[in-house]
Design goal:
This protein has 93 residues and is α+β, with helices and mostly antiparallel strands. It has one domain. Helix content is 25%, strand content 24%. It has a four-stranded antiparallel β-sheet with strand order 1-2-3-4. The chain is globular and about 35 Å long. The protein starts with 8 loop residues before the first helix and ends with a strand.
């Protein structure tokens, strides 16, 4: 059983594309807020069908902590992937 603020891979699999981008945006904003990183450091494309080289999300900062609990350095890119409408994943570089 998961807690109130826990997400399982089954939960992720049920999300539609716009829901997954919204989730990524919320999670990155929460992580930035928790570590006093400017909200403007978070960028998430709310339309993942836009030709942007594949990047769907980015968090990047220079002032603040060297890393956070979920962002291993001051800059990381996220790529959202959908497979046959029944599996979604978040990949980061």
């Amino acid at each position: 059983m998961t807690g109130l603020f826990e997400i399982t891979h089954e939960d992720i699999n049920q999300l539609k594309d716009f829901q997954l981008t919204d989730l990524l945006h919320r999670l990155l904003r929460l992580e930035a807020n928790r570590f006093n990183i400017a909200a403007s450091s978070v960028s998430v494309a709310l339309n993942i069908d836009v030709p942007d080289g594949g990047e769907d999300g980015l968090i990047k900062w220079s002032d603040g902590p060297a890393y956070t609990d979920y962002v291993p350095n001051g800059s990381i890119r996220y790529f959202l992937m959908f497979f046959c409408c029944d599996f979604a994943s978040i990949v980061c570089w």
